[in-house]
Design a protein that fits this description.
Blueprint (H helix, E strand, L loop, with lengths): L1 E3 L6 E3 L7 E4 L5 H7 L5 E4 L1 H9 L12 E3 H10 L1 H4 L8 E3 L1 H10 L3 E4 L6
Parallel strand pairs: 3-4, 3-7, 5-6
Antiparallel strand pairs: 1-2
Length: about 120
Amino acid sequence: MSYAIEGLSETIDTQAASNPLWVLRTWPDAAWCQQWLTAASQVILSELALREVWYHPERIDELPARPLALHTEIQLLRQQQPELAELELPITVIQIGDQRWVELTLECQPVILWEQPCSN
């Protein structure tokens, strides 16, 4: 069975996609999480999604899987936004290095970059 995800240009074959890696650039809504994520999902928070849990750590409970974040991106965000240096990233966000990121992209198929389309 295949599904089209709004914001993606291709459909996803959910039977072939037994181990997807989701890279969330923006925070998904509850309906999207319920449809696409499971407790076994690999989820990396990036950009706006990462900032969302930094400012609102309680939002992590909305995800069925424990989120990951690239240590390099965390350091860059702290440099770009000094106010983040004052805040602690929730300990439930597992920080991974660049090497682990590469390993995940090889282990998981497909790798899906997701962001909420802007509504005008």
